[in-house]
Amino acid sequence: MAKVELKQPIVAAIAEDIKDAQSIVLVDYRGLTVAQDTELRKQLREAGVIYKVCKNTMMKRAFEGTEFAGLDEFLEGPSAIAISKDDATAPARIICNFAKEADKLELKAGVVEGTVYDVAGLTELAKIPSREVLLSRLLGSMQSPITNFARVIKQIAEQDGEAETATEAPAEEAATEE
Length: 178
Hints:
By secondary structure, the protein is an alpha+beta fold. The chain has 2 domains: 3-128, Alpha-Beta Plaits; 130-178. The chain is built from 6 helices and 5 strands. It has helices at 3-18, 34-46, 56-63, 90-101, 119-125, 131-177; strands at 23-28, 49-54, 79-84, 106-112, 115-117. Strands 2-3-1-4-5 form a 5-stranded antiparallel sheet. It is elongated, with a radius of gyration of 29 Å.
């Protein structure tokens, strides 16, 4: 079997992984210990991110004709790829947080929703909270005025209830005196 025939399934697998991906992040994983690599893979897997170590030539072929072709210039040295189909900022966020502990892990570049970012851009994107966090913050800010309004109405109702019992008591006393 020719070498090309052996490589085609690998390129096809990478192409399938990046199909419909919202973001891709390239990293240089040299120097990571096995325990660090295992922990990184675990965190990425929990977030639904695909993480693979692939040959640069295979990735270049898989990127051809896609929005990820801009990453070709960053494919030098050993490279691993983190692919997310759901949360666009998840790979950058997880890898940047992990790189704080494991100083050997280096970001190379990434594509998030069609835009190529360098290391500085990915670091800024990593500061964006996840979609779930943003939605919960939005919901909390929307509920805040309603909650405050409900508290005020409740306090008014309690005050009215106290006022009614205070006015009823003297009227009952006057009726019993007669």
